[in-house]
Specification:
This protein is mainly α and 151 residues long. It is 48% helix and 0% strand. The protein is built from five helices and no strands. The chain has helices spanning 21-51, 53-63, 74-77, 80-95, 125-134. Helix 1 (21-51) crosses helix 2 (53-63). The longest helix has 31 residues, at 21-51.
Length: 151
Amino acid sequence: MPTNLWQSGQSGNPLGRVRGSRNALSEEVICALLRDFRLHGQKAVARVRQTQPAAYLKVLALLVSRDKVEHRNLIKELSDEQLEAMIEYIKTSLEAQPGGPVKVIEGIPATALPVLEPPKRKPNRLMMEVDTAIGPQERKPRKRVPSPAST
């Protein structure tokens, strides 16, 4: 079988694909989906929401834009003067509320939480039975013998 059926610069399909045919097919499919959604979309979405909430939430998550959200701690970026001004503003706004001045509580940390001890390990029942059958013995760890494959 010859390796080169056409000469250089000559196509095997001189007419080729009609220009825009791929776009026309995509456009027809999208239009058909749009017509179907306009007729049955709200009922289908409601049914999926009720019967398959996980799939419903997955679709919602896919529709949400994936813009990167940058989280910043704006309070850490404030200077000491700005923080003091904010505290004064909050105090004056609390005092101006109807019902009289609000008492601000200065917090003092309570005593530290008690340190919990790790749970005690249960004794091995099998070893306890052995101890009662033959008498208690001191257990020594086994010496590991290197396998011949590792040497």
